[in-house]
Each structure stands twice: as structure tokens, then as C-alpha cells.
Amino acid sequence: MTAVVAQKAPYAQAVEAGKTYYWCACGRSANQPFCDGSHKAVGMAPMGFTAEKTDTVYLCGCKTSKNAPFCDGSHNAL
Length: 78
What we know:
By secondary structure, the protein is mostly beta strands. The protein has no helices and 4 strands. It has strands at 11-15, 20-23, 47-50, 55-59. The chain has a two-stranded antiparallel sheet.
């Protein structure tokens, strides 16, 4: 199954050091950029990551980043 482009821009998201987050890799979550379980219907899985520090991170919205879950600018080529 192929991921759906949720948006053609990154999501600026505040994260807390040491907390684990689950980034939606399928693009179907209603809770973008995070997983809401919608992937179960399409056989994909979210990507978990633990924030290294309390900060704002830029999470991929187009689901094509080579540096997932973080934006690498791939949306500019869509």
C-alpha cells in the first residue's frame, strides 16, 4: 500500500524531551502528523520516535521524506 500525501508542507510540532511519539506514515490519520490507528486498514505502521530535547520539530506531511519522520524538503518535488 502507498502512503497518502496528508499535506505538501511539514508539520511544526512541539515535542517534549524523552517522550515517545508515533508519526503517521500512511497519511490517513485524522490526527496528523500523529497516528490514530487508521493504518490498520491498509497494512502500514506508524514510526515511533523519542524526542531528544524539548523543542519544535518539523515532521513530514507529504510522507515521502528520506529522513522520516522529519521533513527533508521532498514535498517541494511533488
